[in-house]
Amino acid sequence: MIMAVLFHCEWEEGEQILQDLSAQIPDMDIRIWPDVGDPTEIEFAIVWKLPHGELAKCPNLRAILSPGAGVDHLFEDLDLPDDVPIGRLIDPLMADRMAEYTASLTLWSHRRFDDYAVLQSRKVWQQVAQKDAKDRGVGILGLGALGLASARCLRPFGFALSGWSRTAKSEPGVTCYHGDDTLAQFLGGAEVLICLLPLTSATRGILNAATFGQMPAGAYLINCARGALVVEDDLLAALDSGQLSGAALDVFDIEPLPDDNPLWTHPKVRITPHVSSLTAAETAAPMLAAQILQVQRGEPLDGRVDPGAEY
Ligand code: NAP
Ligand code: GLV
Fold first, then answer.
1. What is the dihedral of CA 241, 249, 75, 99, to 10 degrees?
2. Same domain flag for 245 and 131
3. Residue 238: which CATH number?
4. pLDDT in tens, 233-247
5. Pocket around ligand 1: residues whose beta carbon is below 6 Å from it?
6. Does any domain span residue 303?
7. Are 54 and 137 part of one and the same domain?
8. Which ligand 1 atom minimizes the distance to the CA of 198?
9. Which domain holds residue 17?
10. Using CA positions, which residue lies closest to atom 3 of ligand 1?
11. Does residue 8 belong to any structural domain of this protein?
């Protein structure tokens, strides 16, 4: 019987992932969507933002694999088969990439470079009050693969680090909170808030007027997770009122960010085009191939997602 892999990934890196994957699993017939062929032959799907309903047409799927860390693009498909294991990438290289980004922006905000940029634009030679790192509360929403890497990268600077997760965590140098009941207390100490939560039914819109109001006045937001975690109108209002001093945004509800979105030109906002931690073919292809082989051998699937929690 023919065993086929369905592949769909429209990133620039997608072509390289495909080439490397073909070399890693040469015996498998890789079919690039929409050239699915006979859907009954598809046993594995490696897909990113596949049009909804397509996976449901493949009755013999044995695993669905995300070529990224996030799986929200799968759970948004209302026809997602509910009895097929789902795997995602947990890649140390991606964690390093994310940690570089979040640490850079944390330091940027901590050392008040936005304020100095404004002063420079007016040719004003003025020293702005500076806190020491030990007095700066940095909170990380989500203490998973990427959140923990960011915490570990920031720890040597001596920030007052805290983190929030769904289940209890323990990490040296990080005050750990978990569960909805502790969110307000966690946010109360987050002068810099790094968002690395997955987008799920429980987290959608979690950053809104109420939660911004629980943060210290003048806090700084770094969102590298998903745009829909943030209520955009509430973010704009919090920036305009000064409740937030600024925001570094790598992800948006609609990507690419539409030309007419006010965030593009907001003086307190820094924008990057979903680049904080891109998938790397060199590490992703071997991981995806290994996940397929694990399922074929009946072994536990690395990066298996809990469908009940949606991440
Ligand atoms: P992960 O390992 O699954 O970690 C997720 C963390 O969020 C965990 O600590 C989890 O708690 C916590 N969490 C989930 N739901 C929660 C809830 N309802 N309440 C409190 N905490 C909750 O995920 P990851 O690999 O770190 O990735 C995080 C997200 O980053 C991805 O889902 C993706 O959206 C985004 N991402 C963005 C980029 C980019 O380039 N912008 C790149 C890669 C990933 P537990 O520890 O208790 O499970
Ligand atoms: C990117 O956003 C990912 O989830 O890997």
1. -130
2. yes
3. 3.40.50.720
4. 999 999 999 999 999
5. 68-70, 94, 142-147, 164-167, 169, 196-200, 202-203, 224-226, 250-251, 274, 276-277, 311
6. no
7. no
8. 32
9. 4-91+279-296
10. 144
11. yes
- Are 103 and 182 found together in one domain? yes
Catalytic residues: 226, 274
Sheet with strand 174-178: strands edge to edge: 174-178, 160-165, 137-141, 192-195, 219-223, 244-249, 269-271
Nearest alpha carbon, ligand 1 atom 4: 144
Query: Which pair of structure tokens corresponds to residue 153?
Result: 């990268």
Task: Output the CA–CA distances (angstroms, integers) from residue 29 to 7, 18, 26, 169, in the order listed.
Answer: 10, 12, 8, 42
Encoded tokens for 234: 């509430």
Probe ligand 1: pick from 197, 250, 305, max atoms within 8 Å of CB? 197
Residues 221, 178, single domain; the answer is yes
Domain presence at residue 302: no
Check: pTM over 0.90? Answer yes or no.
Answer: yes
Q: How do residues 45-70 score in pLDDT, each as one tens digit?
A: 999 999 999 999 999 999 999 999 99
CA dihedral 197, 300, 285, 27 (to 10 degrees): -150
Residues 106 and 86 in one domain: no
102 and 117 part of one domain: yes
74 and 106 inside one domain: no
The verdict on the CB of residue 69 being under 6 Å from ligand 2 is: yes
Residues 23 and 132 grouped into a single domain: no
pLDDT digits (tens, 9 = 90+) for 220-276: 999 999 999 999 999 999 999 999 999 999 999 999 999 999 999 999 999 999 999
